[in-house]
Design a protein that fits this description.
Structural class: alpha+beta
Number of helices: 4
CATH class of the largest domain: Alpha Beta
Number of strands: 7
Order of helices and strands: EHEEHHEEEEH
Shape: globular
Radius of gyration: 20 Å
Amino acid sequence: MLYELRIYHIHPGKMKAIQDRFRDHTIDLFAKHGMNVTQFWEDWDEGENRLYYLVEHEDMNMRNLNYDRFRNDPEWLEIRRISELDGPLVEKLESLFMKNAAFFTIKYMNSTRNGAYRHENNSDRNTPKHRVVKLESSLAE
């Protein structure tokens, strides 16, 4: 699995427009073209005016094929044209490509309403080498 973190630097005053476009159109068009968006984030500091999202791809070849189909989709071209009548929304786009780290498994990142958990390595011979420890809820919030 290939993970692509896309970072959009948004023109001032255009954040709501790009969010609306993603919500109302782009996410569905991505799905139509085989791209699975798993998460969106905004900067903590709103002055940074960046939007981040993560897309899953089978591999780089499929990523390129899917984006080519998306970029040439007449529906997307019309949505983009209409949404950018007052100027472009995105000033700059960055993509970072990632893969899973072999040493890490999701079981160590479990979190529940009752708290969060962390993974501990233990060198003491009398205890298991690895264990998952519940954090106090005040630390997990």
